[in-house]
Amino acid sequence: MVSIRLEPIGKVFKADDGNLLEILRQAGVSIRSDCGGKGICGKCKIVIVEANATFSEISEAERKNLTEEEIKSGYRLACQTTISGKSATIFIPKESKAEVRKISDLYREAKIELKPAIRKFFVKLQKPTLADNSPDYERLTRIFGEFEIPLELLRKLPKKLREADWEITATFWKNTLIDIEKGKSEECYGLAVDIGSSKIVCHLVDINSGKTVAKGYEENPQVAYGEDIVSRVTYASKSPENLKKLQKAVVDAINGIIAKLCKDAKVEKERIYEAMVVGNAVMHHLFFGIEPKYISVSPFTPAIRKGVSFSAKEIGLDICKQGVVSSLPLIAGFVGADAVANIAITGVHKEDKLSMVIDIGTNTEIILGNKDRLLACSTPSGPAFEGAHMAYGIKAVSGAIDSVRIVEGNVEYSTIDNEKPKGICGTGMIDLVAELYKNGFINRYGKFKEKESDRIIFSPTPRFVVARAEETEFGKPITVSEKDINEFLLAKAAIKAGWMLLMRKMGIDESKLEKIYLAGSFGRYINVENAKLIGLLPNIPPEKIDYAGDTAVGGAKMALLSLDVRDEMEKVVQKVEYVELSVEKDFHSVFIRAIPI
Ligand code: FES
């Protein structure tokens, strides 16, 4: 057993000897581990400050990812290092911290008729007498008709009715009685949740008015087990304990958000009766603790497609004891309930015009169609848009370079929160690649051209200096290399190949596309002209592109407030034609052609 002091947070804890990344995960410490601990990404850097312990030898992966200077200064990759001994002080450098990213403030509200699954009724019941000694349940059925009641509530029913002197508020989820309160109570809340691979967004919704009363978000803590969802599936599939760990991690994070939202809005968590959860198929399975393995291997089968509802207690969600956790249906493969939520809120399934919904993330989901036909695919864009696999790539956190312009050879950039730059996030990369191309620094394939500029360093590998050492947070220049650009162009090509194949299946070209909805926080901040220039988005006029914002949580909210929306979405998923890109015979050739700018 080793005692570990973590700096700069000052946390001290004891752990069994073992792998440092695993020890940090177990201790609930957020640290970047984009490759899931495979020794590839180099993001899980830690510094051993002092130790009365033994560490594993420096591995090959560490020699590849750390500079000589870093190794001399005590840097290690947590995933490659095992520790045994008595004590150690470990420093987590800023670049290794998993930070909470920004989300868009914008989310689409659709007008719907309130028809929630949750309903509250204040009733005065007849007290039992010798002349009328029928059971408590029957007394309630005289008002509500036959209904279901969970055993736990039935056990308390006699006492609750009598303590309330037969004047109660009964809360129903559909036809199940889930709560009884003394007297009149109108407070009625629900939770709309979007579980993204990178972040979790929650809205606390007043069921009576349909309004969001508080919203919050958190980094998805599963990131510590792998930035991309395939790494998480691999981890979860290794053992039931691993699956449980991932399930608990996400449930704990949502419970943390619930506690904060309830505090902000002064709402008791017992007054939250239903949570409507959306997420891609893997996030959905991991949240419910369902084995996700078969989603990621051919023929890519989820355990269930239709929308589900389970007891919140069974899931571990901290809302009303008899509350319910529901989910919208999935489509297929990796296209999950978040994509269904995107359909619900954009209404593409009801329109005449041909529209495309693109939700860019670690996995990008694309929907194309109208009321007559809908196609869907998921494309493994990889975490490049989240900054992974690039030397200075970071998520959209404070200090991330989020937009870039090159004017007469000078670089102008902005950073999130106007902080000193500490890396480049996805939107910054879109601009940077487009600007490098427009200004003749790189060719269509992302290779640097011979050009006179003090911004280009050719040795040891060609790099472009985006921010000079004196401008940055850590006193080193932020650069982008040909390898970084190549990584980015591959991710872009995966998305472009996705929408090109869907358009081909639909028998249309870009000129027939009447609308693009950019879903998700990422889409909110994209410079569409640059995105079109590099081929990330179809080339259609800007007025036909709609920044739709956090559509997934908006769609979850619609479903929370309307049983009709749930029914409608069950019908929609039946008619969506899912296109599994990995088995499309043209995918590879389309992908290759989609790489150049
Ligand atoms: S190198 Fe350690 S997590 Fe990627």
Descriptive keywords:
single chain; 597 residues; alpha/beta; Ubiquitin-like (UB roll); Nucleotidyltransferase, domain 5; six-stranded mixed β-sheet; 30% helix; globular; binds FE2/S2 (inorganic) cluster
Return the CATH class of the domain at 347-382 and 489-594. Alpha Beta
Poorly predicted runs are none
Spatial shape:
globular
Ends apart, CA distance between termini: 53 Å
List bound small molecules.
FE2/S2 (inorganic) cluster
Query: Tally the helices: what do you get?
Result: 17
From the alpha-carbon coordinates, what is the Rg to the nearest angstrom? 26 Å
Helix content: 25-40%
Largest β-sheet summary? 6 strands, mixed
Give me the secondary-structure category.
alpha/beta
Total E-strand runs? 27
CATH architecture of the domain at 347-382 and 489-594: 2-Layer Sandwich
Averaged pLDDT: 90
Strand content: 25-35%
Q: What is CATH's topology name of the domain at 347-382 and 489-594? A: Nucleotidyltransferase, domain 5
